[in-house]
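Human: Here is a favour to ask of a fellow structure person. Comparing notes only helps if you start from a blank page. I am asking you to supply a protein in sequence and C-alpha coordinate form. Write it directly below this note and I will take it from there.

Assistant:
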Amino acid sequence: MDRKGFLTTLGFGAFGFIGALFGSMRSGGGSRNAGEICSTGDVPADDRSAILTTADNYQNSIGAGGSLRATNNYGSMAHPPFFIKEDYTSRFYYPPNYKNTNERVKNFNLNIFPLNVDIAHSVSYPAWTFDGVVPGPVLRANLGDTLKIMVKNSSPDPHSLHFHGSHDPGEDGWEPIPAFGERLYTIEAGPIGLHPYHCHVPPLMLHTAKGLYGGLIVDPIQKRPQAHEFVLTFSGWDTKGKGKNDFYTWNGVAGLYDRYPMKVPVGERVRFYIQNLMERDPVMTFHLHAQTFDIFRSLGSVRPDGHSDVVTIGQTERVIIEFSLKKKGRYMFHPHQTHMAENGGMGWIVAV
Protein backbone atom coordinates (compact mmCIF):
# COMPACT_ATOMS: atom_id res chain seq x y z
CA MET A 1 0.00 0.00 0.00
CA ASP A 2 1.45 3.43 -0.95
CA ARG A 3 1.65 6.36 1.47
CA LYS A 4 -1.55 8.01 0.19
CA GLY A 5 -3.54 4.80 0.53
CA PHE A 6 -2.23 4.22 4.04
CA LEU A 7 -3.24 7.72 5.23
CA THR A 8 -6.69 7.39 3.64
CA THR A 9 -7.32 4.07 5.37
CA LEU A 10 -6.07 5.48 8.68
CA GLY A 11 -8.38 8.50 8.37
CA PHE A 12 -11.51 6.45 7.69
CA GLY A 13 -10.59 4.12 10.54
CA ALA A 14 -10.27 7.01 12.97
CA PHE A 15 -13.63 8.49 11.93
CA GLY A 16 -15.23 5.10 12.25
CA PHE A 17 -13.82 4.63 15.76
CA ILE A 18 -15.01 8.09 16.88
CA GLY A 19 -18.48 7.49 15.39
CA ALA A 20 -18.77 4.16 17.16
CA LEU A 21 -17.63 5.71 20.43
CA PHE A 22 -20.21 8.52 20.30
CA GLY A 23 -22.91 6.11 19.17
CA SER A 24 -22.19 3.93 22.20
CA MET A 25 -22.33 6.95 24.49
CA ARG A 26 -25.70 8.09 23.07
CA SER A 27 -27.24 4.67 23.49
CA GLY A 28 -25.97 4.36 27.06
CA GLY A 29 -24.02 1.23 26.09
CA GLY A 30 -27.26 -0.78 26.09
CA SER A 31 -29.07 -2.73 23.43
CA ARG A 32 -32.62 -1.57 24.14
CA ASN A 33 -34.65 0.36 21.62
CA ALA A 34 -34.47 4.01 22.70
CA GLY A 35 -38.05 4.56 21.54
CA GLU A 36 -39.55 1.97 23.90
CA ILE A 37 -41.37 3.48 26.84
CA CYS A 38 -42.25 0.15 28.44
CA SER A 39 -38.80 -1.48 28.70
CA THR A 40 -38.34 -2.74 32.25
CA GLY A 41 -34.56 -3.10 32.36
CA ASP A 42 -32.38 -5.62 34.09
CA VAL A 43 -30.94 -3.63 36.99
CA PRO A 44 -30.01 -5.70 40.06
CA ALA A 45 -32.64 -4.88 42.67
CA ASP A 46 -30.24 -4.80 45.62
CA ASP A 47 -27.63 -2.62 43.90
CA ARG A 48 -27.92 0.82 45.49
CA SER A 49 -25.90 2.45 42.72
CA ALA A 50 -28.28 0.93 40.17
CA ILE A 51 -31.27 2.44 41.98
CA LEU A 52 -29.74 5.89 41.60
CA THR A 53 -28.99 5.60 37.90
CA THR A 54 -31.96 7.75 36.91
CA ALA A 55 -30.19 10.79 38.36
CA ASP A 56 -26.92 9.73 36.75
CA ASN A 57 -28.63 9.27 33.38
CA TYR A 58 -30.05 12.75 33.75
CA GLN A 59 -26.67 14.34 34.40
CA ASN A 60 -25.11 12.47 31.47
CA SER A 61 -27.98 13.09 29.05
CA ILE A 62 -27.88 16.90 29.15
CA GLY A 63 -24.54 16.96 27.34
CA ALA A 64 -22.57 19.94 26.11
CA GLY A 65 -25.48 21.23 24.04
CA GLY A 66 -27.78 21.58 27.08
CA SER A 67 -30.65 19.84 25.28
CA LEU A 68 -33.97 19.66 27.13
CA ARG A 69 -34.74 16.26 25.67
CA ALA A 70 -32.12 13.55 25.54
CA THR A 71 -32.37 9.94 24.44
CA ASN A 72 -31.64 7.37 27.12
CA ASN A 73 -32.34 3.67 27.48
CA TYR A 74 -36.09 4.09 28.02
CA GLY A 75 -37.00 6.98 25.74
CA SER A 76 -36.51 10.69 25.12
CA MET A 77 -37.31 12.67 28.26
CA ALA A 78 -37.61 16.24 29.56
CA HIS A 79 -35.68 16.82 32.78
CA PRO A 80 -36.06 18.92 35.96
CA PRO A 81 -34.06 22.09 36.65
CA PHE A 82 -30.72 21.38 38.31
CA PHE A 83 -31.65 23.23 41.51
CA ILE A 84 -34.78 21.12 42.17
CA LYS A 85 -33.80 18.82 45.04
CA GLU A 86 -35.42 15.74 46.51
CA ASP A 87 -36.95 17.70 49.39
CA TYR A 88 -39.27 19.36 46.82
CA THR A 89 -41.23 16.09 46.74
CA SER A 90 -41.80 15.97 50.51
CA ARG A 91 -44.96 18.10 50.47
CA PHE A 92 -46.69 15.46 48.33
CA TYR A 93 -45.79 12.53 50.61
CA TYR A 94 -47.59 11.39 53.75
CA PRO A 95 -45.70 8.73 55.78
CA PRO A 96 -47.61 6.10 57.78
CA ASN A 97 -47.33 8.10 61.02
CA TYR A 98 -49.12 11.13 59.53
CA LYS A 99 -52.06 12.16 61.73
CA ASN A 100 -54.98 14.25 60.53
CA THR A 101 -56.06 16.37 63.49
CA ASN A 102 -59.48 15.80 65.05
CA GLU A 103 -60.39 19.48 65.21
CA ARG A 104 -63.76 19.85 63.46
CA VAL A 105 -63.04 23.37 62.19
CA LYS A 106 -59.93 23.74 60.04
CA ASN A 107 -58.56 27.09 58.93
CA PHE A 108 -56.48 27.57 55.79
CA ASN A 109 -55.00 30.62 54.08
CA LEU A 110 -54.21 30.80 50.36
CA ASN A 111 -52.53 33.70 48.58
CA ILE A 112 -52.91 34.07 44.80
CA PHE A 113 -50.12 35.84 42.94
CA PRO A 114 -48.20 35.58 39.64
CA LEU A 115 -44.75 34.04 39.66
CA ASN A 116 -42.35 32.56 37.13
CA VAL A 117 -42.01 28.85 37.92
CA ASP A 118 -39.39 26.47 36.54
CA ILE A 119 -41.13 23.44 35.06
CA ALA A 120 -38.15 21.82 33.28
CA HIS A 121 -34.43 22.29 32.70
CA SER A 122 -33.96 25.87 31.38
CA VAL A 123 -37.74 26.31 31.01
CA SER A 124 -39.48 29.00 33.08
CA TYR A 125 -43.21 29.68 32.80
CA PRO A 126 -45.14 32.86 33.83
CA ALA A 127 -47.61 31.09 36.11
CA TRP A 128 -50.46 32.15 38.34
CA THR A 129 -50.06 30.42 41.69
CA PHE A 130 -51.64 29.55 45.01
CA ASP A 131 -48.94 30.42 47.60
CA GLY A 132 -46.22 30.61 44.96
CA VAL A 133 -46.28 26.92 44.07
CA VAL A 134 -47.83 24.78 41.31
CA PRO A 135 -49.79 22.76 42.19
CA GLY A 136 -51.07 24.64 45.21
CA PRO A 137 -50.79 23.28 48.76
CA VAL A 138 -52.43 19.92 49.51
CA LEU A 139 -55.25 20.53 52.00
CA ARG A 140 -56.56 17.71 54.20
CA ALA A 141 -59.60 17.26 56.43
CA ASN A 142 -61.99 14.66 57.83
CA LEU A 143 -65.46 14.00 56.49
CA GLY A 144 -67.87 16.61 57.89
CA ASP A 145 -65.17 19.07 59.00
CA THR A 146 -65.90 22.75 58.49
CA LEU A 147 -63.22 24.34 56.32
CA LYS A 148 -62.63 28.07 56.46
CA ILE A 149 -60.34 29.11 53.61
CA MET A 150 -59.25 32.74 53.48
CA VAL A 151 -58.13 33.61 49.95
CA LYS A 152 -56.13 36.77 49.31
CA ASN A 153 -55.86 37.84 45.69
CA SER A 154 -52.48 39.57 45.50
CA SER A 155 -52.84 39.90 41.76
CA PRO A 156 -53.89 42.56 39.21
CA ASP A 157 -56.32 40.02 37.72
CA PRO A 158 -59.61 38.69 39.16
CA HIS A 159 -59.46 35.13 40.49
CA SER A 160 -61.52 32.75 42.63
CA LEU A 161 -61.41 29.44 44.51
CA HIS A 162 -63.73 26.62 43.42
CA PHE A 163 -63.78 23.21 45.13
CA HIS A 164 -65.11 20.03 43.57
CA GLY A 165 -67.35 18.02 45.87
CA SER A 166 -70.53 18.79 47.77
CA HIS A 167 -71.03 22.19 49.46
CA ASP A 168 -73.25 25.27 49.81
CA PRO A 169 -73.76 26.81 46.32
CA GLY A 170 -73.15 30.22 47.84
CA GLU A 171 -69.57 29.08 48.50
CA ASP A 172 -68.99 27.60 45.05
CA GLY A 173 -66.31 30.04 43.99
CA TRP A 174 -67.40 31.07 40.52
CA GLU A 175 -67.71 34.73 41.53
CA PRO A 176 -64.43 36.59 40.97
CA ILE A 177 -62.39 38.01 43.81
CA PRO A 178 -61.37 41.44 42.48
CA ALA A 179 -57.74 42.39 42.04
CA PHE A 180 -56.04 42.79 45.43
CA GLY A 181 -59.25 41.75 47.20
CA GLU A 182 -59.96 38.81 49.51
CA ARG A 183 -62.73 36.36 50.27
CA LEU A 184 -63.47 33.83 53.04
CA TYR A 185 -64.92 30.53 51.80
CA THR A 186 -66.66 28.19 54.25
CA ILE A 187 -67.44 24.65 53.11
CA GLU A 188 -68.14 21.29 54.68
CA ALA A 189 -65.62 18.60 53.72
CA GLY A 190 -67.17 15.77 51.73
CA PRO A 191 -67.65 13.29 50.32
CA ILE A 192 -64.53 11.26 51.12
CA GLY A 193 -61.86 11.09 48.47
CA LEU A 194 -59.69 13.53 46.54
CA HIS A 195 -61.16 16.85 45.38
CA PRO A 196 -59.44 19.28 43.03
CA TYR A 197 -59.64 22.97 43.71
CA HIS A 198 -58.94 25.62 41.07
CA CYS A 199 -59.74 29.13 39.92
CA HIS A 200 -63.06 29.38 38.07
CA VAL A 201 -62.80 32.82 36.44
CA PRO A 202 -63.28 32.90 32.64
CA PRO A 203 -61.50 32.08 30.46
CA LEU A 204 -61.30 28.98 32.64
CA MET A 205 -58.74 27.21 30.46
CA LEU A 206 -56.31 30.09 30.86
CA HIS A 207 -56.61 30.31 34.64
CA THR A 208 -56.24 26.57 35.12
CA ALA A 209 -53.49 26.07 32.54
CA LYS A 210 -51.42 28.83 34.13
CA GLY A 211 -51.23 26.91 37.41
CA LEU A 212 -54.19 27.83 39.64
CA TYR A 213 -55.06 24.38 40.98
CA GLY A 214 -54.45 22.09 43.94
CA GLY A 215 -56.07 19.25 45.87
CA LEU A 216 -58.12 18.52 48.99
CA ILE A 217 -58.08 15.06 50.60
CA VAL A 218 -61.17 14.22 52.65
CA ASP A 219 -60.55 11.25 54.94
CA PRO A 220 -63.28 8.89 56.18
CA ILE A 221 -64.13 8.97 59.88
CA GLN A 222 -62.83 5.41 60.18
CA LYS A 223 -59.43 5.85 58.63
CA ARG A 224 -58.18 3.93 55.63
CA PRO A 225 -55.52 1.28 56.37
CA GLN A 226 -52.07 2.67 57.07
CA ALA A 227 -50.07 3.30 53.90
CA HIS A 228 -47.30 5.34 52.31
CA GLU A 229 -49.36 8.06 50.63
CA PHE A 230 -48.44 10.26 47.68
CA VAL A 231 -50.49 12.96 45.95
CA LEU A 232 -49.84 13.10 42.20
CA THR A 233 -51.25 16.01 40.17
CA PHE A 234 -50.78 15.73 36.42
CA SER A 235 -50.71 18.82 34.20
CA GLY A 236 -49.63 20.07 30.78
CA TRP A 237 -47.83 23.28 29.76
CA ASP A 238 -48.08 25.26 26.53
CA THR A 239 -44.72 27.03 26.68
CA LYS A 240 -44.75 28.12 23.01
CA GLY A 241 -48.20 29.71 23.00
CA LYS A 242 -49.41 27.53 20.15
CA GLY A 243 -52.47 26.06 21.87
CA LYS A 244 -50.92 22.65 22.61
CA ASN A 245 -48.95 21.24 25.50
CA ASP A 246 -45.26 20.64 24.97
CA PHE A 247 -44.31 19.69 28.55
CA TYR A 248 -46.11 17.39 30.99
CA THR A 249 -45.51 17.30 34.72
CA TRP A 250 -46.26 15.37 37.87
CA ASN A 251 -46.54 17.90 40.69
CA GLY A 252 -45.35 20.77 38.54
CA VAL A 253 -41.92 19.58 37.38
CA ALA A 254 -41.09 17.57 34.25
CA GLY A 255 -39.19 14.37 35.02
CA LEU A 256 -39.39 14.93 38.78
CA TYR A 257 -39.85 11.26 39.69
CA ASP A 258 -37.39 10.22 37.00
CA ARG A 259 -34.60 11.99 38.88
CA TYR A 260 -36.02 11.39 42.38
CA PRO A 261 -37.92 8.08 42.47
CA MET A 262 -40.44 7.52 45.24
CA LYS A 263 -38.93 5.08 47.74
CA VAL A 264 -41.17 2.61 49.58
CA PRO A 265 -40.45 -0.48 51.70
CA VAL A 266 -41.00 -3.86 50.08
CA GLY A 267 -44.38 -5.40 50.91
CA GLU A 268 -45.93 -2.30 52.53
CA ARG A 269 -49.13 -0.67 51.30
CA VAL A 270 -48.76 2.31 48.95
CA ARG A 271 -51.62 4.71 48.19
CA PHE A 272 -51.61 7.22 45.33
CA TYR A 273 -54.10 10.10 45.15
CA ILE A 274 -54.02 10.96 41.44
CA GLN A 275 -55.77 13.91 39.77
CA ASN A 276 -55.67 15.20 36.22
CA LEU A 277 -55.61 19.02 36.06
CA MET A 278 -54.36 19.15 32.48
CA GLU A 279 -55.89 21.48 29.91
CA ARG A 280 -55.72 21.09 26.09
CA ASP A 281 -55.48 17.26 26.18
CA PRO A 282 -58.80 15.50 26.87
CA VAL A 283 -57.50 12.44 28.71
CA MET A 284 -54.46 10.70 30.16
CA THR A 285 -53.81 7.24 31.52
CA PHE A 286 -51.74 6.12 34.49
CA HIS A 287 -49.80 2.89 33.93
CA LEU A 288 -47.68 1.07 36.52
CA HIS A 289 -45.07 -1.44 35.38
CA ALA A 290 -44.60 -4.91 36.88
CA GLN A 291 -47.49 -4.60 39.36
CA THR A 292 -51.28 -4.17 39.45
CA PHE A 293 -53.36 -2.01 41.78
CA ASP A 294 -56.79 -1.63 43.38
CA ILE A 295 -58.79 1.29 41.98
CA PHE A 296 -61.05 3.57 44.07
CA ARG A 297 -62.82 5.71 41.48
CA SER A 298 -66.11 6.44 43.25
CA LEU A 299 -66.20 9.27 45.78
CA GLY A 300 -67.38 8.16 49.20
CA SER A 301 -66.12 4.61 48.72
CA VAL A 302 -63.58 2.72 50.84
CA ARG A 303 -63.94 -0.41 48.69
CA PRO A 304 -62.13 -0.86 45.37
CA ASP A 305 -64.11 -0.33 42.17
CA GLY A 306 -61.69 -2.36 40.08
CA HIS A 307 -58.22 -3.79 39.66
CA SER A 308 -55.78 -3.17 36.82
CA ASP A 309 -52.31 -1.93 35.83
CA VAL A 310 -53.70 1.08 33.93
CA VAL A 311 -56.48 3.57 34.65
CA THR A 312 -57.93 6.30 32.42
CA ILE A 313 -58.44 9.76 33.93
CA GLY A 314 -60.28 12.61 32.18
CA GLN A 315 -59.88 16.33 32.87
CA THR A 316 -60.36 17.13 36.60
CA GLU A 317 -61.12 13.46 37.30
CA ARG A 318 -59.29 11.78 40.13
CA VAL A 319 -58.66 8.29 41.36
CA ILE A 320 -57.12 6.58 44.36
CA ILE A 321 -55.02 3.47 43.78
CA GLU A 322 -53.47 1.05 46.28
CA PHE A 323 -50.77 -1.58 45.80
CA SER A 324 -47.69 -3.14 47.38
CA LEU A 325 -44.39 -4.03 45.74
CA LYS A 326 -43.30 -7.51 46.76
CA LYS A 327 -39.78 -7.50 45.31
CA LYS A 328 -36.91 -5.01 45.49
CA GLY A 329 -36.32 -3.06 42.30
CA ARG A 330 -37.38 -0.13 40.15
CA TYR A 331 -40.98 0.13 38.95
CA MET A 332 -41.72 2.57 36.13
CA PHE A 333 -44.94 4.57 35.86
CA HIS A 334 -46.15 6.93 33.14
CA PRO A 335 -49.10 8.03 31.02
CA HIS A 336 -49.60 5.62 28.15
CA GLN A 337 -49.92 8.57 25.79
CA THR A 338 -46.32 8.26 24.63
CA HIS A 339 -45.74 11.94 23.89
CA MET A 340 -46.72 12.77 27.50
CA ALA A 341 -44.29 10.21 28.90
CA GLU A 342 -41.48 11.38 26.64
CA ASN A 343 -41.95 15.04 27.55
CA GLY A 344 -41.84 14.85 31.32
CA GLY A 345 -44.47 12.36 32.50
CA MET A 346 -42.32 9.29 33.23
CA GLY A 347 -41.28 8.38 36.78
CA TRP A 348 -40.07 5.57 39.02
CA ILE A 349 -41.01 3.92 42.30
CA VAL A 350 -38.17 2.12 44.09
CA ALA A 351 -38.96 -0.77 46.43
CA VAL A 352 -36.20 -1.07 49.05
User: Anything to note?
Assistant: Helices lie at 3-26, 48-51, 53-62, 204-209, 256-259, 338-345. The two ends are 61 Å apart (CA to CA).
